[in-house]
Amino acid sequence: MPSLFSPKLNEAVHLDPHESWPEADHLFDEESVWAVQTALAIGRPLLLRGEPGIGKSQLARAVAAVLEVPFLYHVVDERCERDDLLYTYDAVARLAEAQVAALTAREEGTDWRKELDECHFVRPGVLWWAFNWQDAADRSKKFHKRLRRNWTEPTAPKDWPAVASSRPCGPVVLIDEIDKADPSVPNGLLECLGNEGFHTAQLGHSVGLAKGSKPPMIILTTNEERELPSAFLRRCLVLHLRFPEERKKAVEFLVNRASALRTSTDLGKNLCEKVAECIVDDRSDARSRTARPGAAEYLELLRALHRHAPGDEESQLKRLDQIKDFVLKKHDPMTG
């Protein structure tokens, strides 16, 4: 395969804990590798479709790990606006500073207006960091110093951005659950992603890709809660991540997802297979098609069994029958 992106298909990529993201292992399949390669080759965002827990967000983390670039993310909610992905303007902090500055000016006779310029109260968002890491770092330092707040630079490979030129792309940016936002958000990103930059009224100038830098790789996910705008879909490459329909493959898929959990706990493979079979059986139950359990429920059930009876597989298997319905049966039994 081309050298832009070529992880080994039969070897798990280990992902260390990252902020709120837990430790995990990711196995790439050939389709995912080709999708990532194509997105890198033509500079298009990659939209991942699939049910919750199928591994969409984990795939983005694994891509960043393989490419050895920073992993940046923004989890979208229904209140999200386009600018939240670009920058945050803290008008409340500016008002508070104005009140303090006005009192100081009366006492010292100084001109405080320059200190309250809007540009001093702008904090970079994930896409700003992705387009121009050094500019975002400088701006963030000034922002937090002015407001007397602690600040930590996003996690990045050693010597980043000095080593960025040796990578096939800039940071990997995960925009998670884009379907939760109003359609104006994905539509508002079209110009930013197409031009590799954006304009902010508060700064008075544009933020763009740093000179000599490579564009970031943008990965978005959707749980299909809301239809995405056609114009936005045309801008993206799309990868469908599907839960295997064939029973044996479905069980194997789930057991592979538990590899990191098995490493950090004493869960046995036999237990993992039994729980996987419960998941697959419940997915086939026609009554539960509105809320079919998947990989997320599988891992939750394994964690629960480990905490109920750590190190005792016999007790864990007994507990499985006692607690599995709490995790799996999410439909209303009265409605069938």
Account of the protein in words:
This protein is α/β, with parallel strands linked by helices and 336 residues long. The chain has two domains: 17-86 and 119-240, Rossmann fold (3-Layer(aba) Sandwich), CATH 3.40.50; 247-328. 43% of the residues lie in helices and 12% in strands. It is built from twelve helices and eleven strands. Strands 4-7-10-3-11 form a five-stranded parallel β-sheet. A hairpin with an 8-residue loop joins strand 1 and strand 2 (24-26). Helix 10 (269-283) crosses helix 11 (295-308) and helix 10 runs parallel beside helix 12 (313-328). The chain is globular and about 70 Å long. The mean pLDDT is 87.
Q: Which class of the largest domain in CATH terms?
A: Alpha Beta
Identify the CATH homologous superfamily of the largest domain: P-loop containing nucleotide triphosphate hydrolases
* Low-pLDDT sequence parts: none
The biggest beta sheet is recorded as: 5 strands, parallel
User: What is the gyration radius calculated from CA atoms?
Assistant: 24 Å
CATH topology of the largest domain: Rossmann fold
Number of domains: 2
Give me the CATH architecture of the largest domain, please: 3-Layer(aba) Sandwich
Strand order of the largest sheet: 4-7-10-3-11
> What overall form do the CA principal axes indicate?
globular
Mean pLDDT: 87
Secondary structure class reads alpha/beta
